[in-house]
Amino acid sequence: MEPVLNYINGNFVRAASGFTLDTVNPATNTVITQVARSDATDVATATQAARQAATAWGATTMEERIVWLERIADALESEAETIAQLESLDTGKPISLARRVDAARSVDNFRFFASHAKGHQDPMFSDHGAVNHVHRSPVGVVGLITPWNLPLYLLSWKVAPALLMGNTIVAKPSELTPLTANFLAKTLHKVGLPPGVFNLVHGYGPEVGQAIVEHPDVRGISFTGGTATGKLVAATAAPMFKKLSLELGGKNATVVLDDAPLDEIMEGLVRASFTNSGQVCLCGSRILVDASIYDSFVAKFVAAVEDLRIGDPLDEATQMGSVISQDHKTKVESYIQLGIAEGGTVLTGGLSEEAPVTGVPAEGAYLRPTVLAELSASSRTATEEIFGPVVTLHAFSNEDEAVEMANLTAYGLAGSVWTADTERGHAFAKRMETGIVWVNTWLNRDLRTPFGGVKQSGVGREGGDWSMAFFSEMTNVCIQLP
Ligand code: NAD
């Protein structure tokens, strides 16, 4: 595959230093290609290009930008299979998942924001003989920094509303998954987006991400990634009073109430636990089950987990591929070891040495889906983000205890409640300290709704009107009527 270059001011260019890094297929541990390893010099060039493009792009009308978004959606849609293949190669995720979730949603993100903005009117208020007109302008140059688990899905979730609201962009994808961001840059180039409106700088977080956050001309930062990195981003951006949106880590509870129809919901529970090898920030990684149904739940859940087909990501039948890297596999396994040290019992899965995945390359970053029981709900294994195919099971004796257990972690991103009684589920959901709760479903997303976390899972909301508000500045013009 061709090397991956930066995209700056409408040109594909090497890092100024000439340095590169490798992007690796984690399912085989082989190098796919070399990627520009950029630094603050490249960020400065990209930011300057974005600044120069900002005036003309910001002066286009919303209607014109809606047409651009539709054009981009069409161009991506016609290459959906390429996107899915690239994403599967770079992340080790099953091709079926990459098609259904990554490629489809990347197209939808552009399509959704184009349609959401149609007919949008800024509010007007009249009082005291005056009319107040709320005028929106772009923030200016915005920095978009994204992680590796849903690479183009999350990047396009930021690029679409940023462009819509008239901003110009300096983006940085994860160094682990640059392929689809590069494909997006090629697509934007192909559809003729003006030079400098979208700039892409590849490289490591401390060398490129940090430089984007530090750059005084980047006026807003939308960051999705881990909580520890989010703290650094916040500490750097806050003294410059930049607009900041932080979508961070999670440790989400899946709550199974005593009336839940176990056979019906089992597939949903397994999906909520192990989609993308558990590497979705919204995955439920601590399952809280009413004690009266705990034994029956454990038997059904473990059997369903053991039915998951793990294997070659490019095999159509594969349901779970590898994790993102050998380093990440080591981190996840360290948590399995911690779980055992904290008194947990492995019900299925476990360390790859003891429970290897068969029929896959030995060098691949594979792990079996792992279920741990008998851990305290306040143990480190049950409260720290693992971000891999590991869940812990905990029994509760009443709803108050379940609420307490669900809210035990420092995070507050998502959760789900499973019950035969939707009103009961709704009431329970309102007691959970999270940004999103699903009742009897998971990852069911209406893109108009607010998305984001509380506590250490982030600050701010994205989605629909919230993204439009984040990517714009509002001026209230108060006009005294004659
Ligand atoms: P990460 O924090 O390591 O990296 C995220 C991005 O930040 C990468 O592009 C990285 O290069 C960059 N980065 C690293 N150091 C930086 C710095 N000092 N300044 C600026 N940028 C820097 O996260 P990750 O390992 O790529 O992704 C996994 C994490 O992302 C998990 O914690 C997961 O929960 C979280 N996540 C959250 C959401 C959400 O919507 N809340 C969605 C997906 C993933």
What does this structure look like?
The protein is an alpha/beta fold. It folds into two domains: 6-248 and 457-480, Aldehyde Dehydrogenase, Chain A, domain 1; 252-446, Aldehyde Dehydrogenase, Chain A, domain 2 (3-Layer(aba) Sandwich), CATH 3.40.309.10. Helices cover 39% and strands 22% of the residues. It contains 15 helices and 22 strands. The chain has a seven-stranded mixed sheet with strand order 14-15-16-13-12-18-19, sandwiched between helices. Strand 15 (370-373), helix 12 and strand 16 form a beta-alpha-beta unit. The chain is globular. The relative contact order is 0.14. The mean pLDDT is 98. Bound molecules: nicotinamide-adenine-dinucleotide.
Task: Give the name of the CATH architecture of the largest domain.
Answer: 3-Layer(aba) Sandwich
The helix content is 25-40%
Q: How many β strands by DSSP?
A: 22
- Name the assembly state: single chain
Name given to the CATH homologous superfamily of the largest domain: Aldehyde Dehydrogenase, Chain A, domain 1
Short structural description:
This protein is of the alpha/beta class. The protein has 2 domains: 267 residues, Aldehyde Dehydrogenase, Chain A, domain 1 (3-Layer(aba) Sandwich); 195 residues, Aldehyde Dehydrogenase, Chain A, domain 2 (3-Layer(aba) Sandwich), CATH 3.40.309.10. It has 15 helices and 22 strands.
